[in-house]
């Protein structure tokens, strides 16, 4: 594997690299300008996400989780370092990596039906028949066929977030990036959508990077959880739960691996507080 | 605007008109130049048959709509520039603020001097006056569109034209429509005023001529027609806009 020229950040051990790498960042740093002075946000982040892997990112608010996700999506360019998709550097959005935003209310177009919202990314690029076919497939995968002609604001929050996921799936991406995708939803809906996401991943095999503020969600959904911390932020810890992919909601929560991973994350996030 | 027929709302003005009629017939109100509603109706029938009332109505309606259309086209362009470009806004907002607060009626005599007592003069001043609320409405609507839409646009690699036409302007549509209503009202006001002051055509001219001719019944006919025209334009155009622009049907209060 390339990249050993870069010093690895302090804590983490190498991820389980059973799968070939899909997305890599090499020594990526970003700073924003606040009140005329540059404020470093991310400092020398190097990480690898394998094909078909599900990676969770946790960290206190304001640590730069969303910034990291925007870099991975090509929505933001790093000041230094580079981002590679299948070994090739990229620094602008692509169909192969699609972001699902947290605020579905702002990210969906309230005047377009569910069907036309989902078609947004493909409607000008593909023939009419192919658009219809792809949209139908994405709606079926997210169980939204019955709501294809509704307007987003007529749907519940969980369904609106599924519309956004369908709008991403229609692009047939290799990587799905989700920014606190279920943060605004109630516990029942959140649990259902977590299982939906796991099922979709199993069906299509895409790679997932998601941000969450919920430690349980991170461990339950992800194969590997990264903890972002410090200012500027680095990856301060990596936790691999080792849970089997075929997860049952109730059993998993009592599994020793789940409890241990959850404890490790909690220690990292809240442990150093007096 | 209520969509259902509002019987209770109609009762109040009908009662007022009946009271007006009764008070004059009972000689409680004895102003020389205040006609009874029945006299106004009679004058209206007369004007309709022999006095070119329909022509005056059509003239005013046509000029109001023409001025409004010109204003809308110009305001959409200028408002879009101001709403999208911080640079355009920085260099122009001061001028916009000065120009829009200048009461356009002050320009009526100016336009009449420049263009003469013509339809052109009416259109010019009315379009000028009607443009400003729309300029402000379009610019504010675009600035108020969710910033997230720009991330969505980047994610799906939409062209700049498509971002404006498919995302930002539809998001701005409710504010733009509110401004368009104001602008239509202003267009009618300025057209009628210009007709009263200078051009011998339209409903405004009818009001002014019958005032000097001491024909209050005929004057009232024109006044009521102006009111009806304003209400009618609103009633026809706004539902049409709602049908044509999907984002206006989104139905949320804010």
TrEMBL record, chain A:
Highest rank taxon of the organism: Bacteria
Residue ranges of every copy of the ABC transporter domain listed in the record: 23-255
Biased composition (Pro residues): 9-19
Alphabetized UniProt keyword annotations: ATP-binding, Nucleotide-binding, Transport
SUPFAM superfamilies (alphabetical): P-loop containing nucleoside triphosphate hydrolases
InterPro entries named among the record's database cross-references: AAA+_ATPase, ABC_transporter-like_ATP-bd, ABC_transporter-like_CS, ABC_transporter_ATP-bind, P-loop_NTPase
Location of region: Disordered: 1-23
MF annotations from Gene Ontology: ATP binding
Protein name: ABC transporter ATP-binding protein
UniProtKB/TrEMBL annotation, chain B:
Chief location: membrane
Transmembrane segments: 56-86, 98-119, 125-142, 163-193, 219-240
Lineage, broadest ranks: Bacteria, Bacillati, Actinomycetota, Actinomycetes, Streptosporangiales
Protein name listed in UniProt: ABC transporter permease subunit
Species of the source: Actinomadura parmotrematis
Keyword list, A-Z: Cell membrane, Membrane, Transmembrane, Transmembrane helix, Transport
Chain ranges of the ABC transmembrane type-1 domain: 57-237
Protein's membrane topology: Multi-pass membrane protein
Pfam families reported in the protein's UniProt record: BPD_transp_1 (PF00528)
Entry's localization field: Cell membrane
SUPFAM superfamilies, alphabetized: MetI-like
InterPro entries attached to this UniProt entry: MetI-like (IPR000515), MetI-like_sf (IPR035906)
Protein family per UniProt: Belongs to the binding-protein-dependent transport system permease family.
Keyword Acyltransferase set for record: no
